[in-house]
Amino acid sequence: MSDLSAARLLDVCERGAGAAPHTRALLLLAAAHPSLPHDDLASWSLGRRDAALLDLRARLFGEAVQSVAACPRCATPLELSFRTADVRTPLAPEELPPLVATLDGHAFLVRLRPVSTAALLAAGGQRETLLLHCVAAATRDGEPLAPADIPPEVLDRCAAALAEADPQADIRLALSCEACGERWEAPFDPASFLWREVEIWAERALREVHMLASAYGWTEGEILALSAARRRRYLELVTG
Fold first, then answer.
1. DSSP state of 90
2. Under a CB-based contact definition with an 8 Å cutoff, are residues 162 and 112 in contact?
């Protein structure tokens, strides 16, 4: 489990049960960076967050990723195999270049900040609210403009600029089906994928604790303090 203890990872999994996906992502991020304040982690761009979760995934389970996708045309299952390094892309800069747009004879300048987990949670799934959270400042014809007064057409350009600036936040895998020849792009969400892996690991770890506690009378803390290799060896002795 690298330098992240089994007990701490179980605690993260328990706290995230039933939580929203972005809340779970923050729990994983906080486990990987326990010295950083929650608000700092929540303010990271999505690309920076997902890059850090790829780092955590490599620490916990290794670089190699195995998954399965279904062909959207014929539903044939496709086995995926890649490494976390294969889905690395440049991160968004902390300060994005200003967006300049002209609409109905007016000149707009919008300074944007990258999409963050905090902005996503605050927006509650509302696209326009999310975009407004990402506006640091705006002017129309050189005069200050409230984010809420930015025309929808200019906000659409802001959305495109935000997506272009942070490609790590939108990982897509180029796939093809050998059965029917269909080609498509499948999204890969490091946060959701890692959370599911942690859930599977947690179920296995709890079964190990149950078996060893029943056999030896050890506490959960004593069992989790053992290395994974030593726990496996004791399990082999218990099961014969």
1. P
2. yes
CA 149/CA 141 separation, integer angstroms: 13
What is the distance between the alpha carbons of residues 140 and 221, in angstroms, rounded to a whole number?
61
Nearest to 82 by CA among 58, 53, 59, 50: 58
**In terms of pTM, does the model score above 0.90?**
yes
d(CA 133, CA 148): 10
At 35, list the tokens. 């010295």
> Which amino acid makes up residue 236?
E
User: Residue 76: how many CB atoms within 10 A of its CB?
Assistant: 13
* Alpha carbon 56 to chain centroid, angstroms: 11
* pLDDT tens digits, one per residue of 80-120: 999 999 999 999 998 899 999 999 999 999 999 999 999 99
First-to-last C-alpha distance (Å) of the chain: 25
pLDDT at res. 3 = 64
Token reading at 227: 């290395």
Q: Which alpha helices (H) appear in 85-240, and where do they start and end?
A: 117-123, 127-133, 152-165, 190-216, 220-225, 228-239
pLDDT in tens, 129-185: 999 999 999 999 999 999 999 999 999 999 999 999 999 999 999 999 999 999 999
